Amino acid sequence: MPSTRRARIVGSNENEGDTTMRLLLVLAMTCAGAAAAQQVDGNAVRSCFANTPIGETTPDCLGAASNACQDQGFDTTQGITQCIQAETAVWDDLLNAEYKSTRAALADQDAALPDTLLTAQRAWIAFRDAECALDYARWQGGSIRSVVFANCMMVMTARRTLELRDMKGN
Predict the structure, then answer these.
(1) pLDDT at residue 4 above 90?
(2) 3-state SS, residue 59
(3) Do 57 and 163 touch, CB atoms closer than 8 A?
């Protein structure tokens, strides 16, 4: 009796067309995201960081670079999200630099403090991710949820960057 099973090529699936479409969509979004990232003025974000007084964690300039990006034609939900993500990327670079600098400063105080900071930073990352996921879930069914999530990530990343800076006792 002949087999009714079809031969299957390793790595292929019946939804190959769906997979191809998803890959094309991701590629298109990546290209659009790269265009939005080019419209975010990283120097404006760095200036915001540098000019924020010690103890201030929510400066008025937070989000200004992504707002300016949106004014350059990225005013759809996807464009707004990408502009916010692009500003967040600059804040994330600043956060990583501040983390390294703060670890070094804390090591000068006490050899155990860098490990304590590492534990705190890992807990903060988990909290940030969970908090922003909650914001996203609260807006389920609405296209605004991606903007809300991106904005949460930006605000929390910027705040933590400033908190790390302030830990050094500047």
Answers:
(1) no
(2) coil
(3) yes
